[in-house]
Design goal:
It contains 2 helices and 13 strands, in the order βββββββββββααββ. It has helices at 141-152, 164-167; strands spanning 2-5, 11-16, 19-26, 32-39, 44-51, 57-58, 79-82, 100-103, 109-114, 123-128, 134-139, 168-175, 179-186. The chain is globular.
């Protein structure tokens, strides 16, 4: 749950996420709040964008589901992204360390999703434009190392050069107007 207050200590809003919110930050222009953490309904990491003047509502959940927030404040995010788990993360108990969030002065956002643990972390890096659309998706240098290690152990049955997670990702995206849709983005 994220509760926001104005400079005088008055409550601006409450946003309830089904899962945990690990990090939150305001955009440089002050118009939006950006959150990242874990979505229980999807068992994956998420990125949410809220209106800073009305940061109230809940994460988008299916009506009647165990993760629907009954009695919570009305409203929702402007954008809610759910990131897919990579095949190299399937062996780990979930969740791992929370995603990191970087907001740049020009409005771009970067989310780093940790797919593994350990000293050489395999990660997926999602770059968003100032319009909050997915721009570039890439993986860390250690991603391939982890993949080869899991290939050798027999956990993964395809070579890294044929790994679907190295070719593209399908990211779930929710908006108030369109609801849920899939965004397919090439990995570069």
């Amino acid at each position: 749950m994220l509760i926001t207050f104005d400079g005088a200590g008055r409550r601006l809003g409450t946003f309830v996420n089904s899962g945990w919110i690990a990090v939150s930050a305001g955009t440089p222009d002050g118009r939006h709040l950006v959150l990242a953490g874990m979505s229980n309904a999807h068992r994956s990491y998420f990125l949410a964008v809220l209106d800073a003047e009305r940061p109230t509502g809940t994460s988008p959940e299916a009506a009647g589901s165990s993760t629907e927030c009954v009695g919570c404040p009305p409203g929702g995010p402007l954008h809610y992204y759910v990131f897919p788990r990579a095949d190299i993360s399937a062996q780990f108990a979930y969740p791992l360390d929370p995603p990191s969030l970087v907001l740049f002065g020009d409005g771009r956002i970067q989310v780093q999703v940790l797919e593994t643990s350990g000293p050489a972390v395999g990660a997926t890096i999602y770059d968003f434009g100032s319009d909050f659309d997915v721009g570039r998706v890439r993986v860390s240098d250690s991603f391939d190392e982890w993949h080869r290690r899991l290939e050798s152990a027999g956990t993964l049955r395809h070579p890294v050069r044929e790994c679907p997670d190295r070719q593209h990702r399908e990211i779930r995206h929710w908006t108030p107007d369109a609801g849920w849709r899939m965004v397919r983005t090439d990995v570069r």
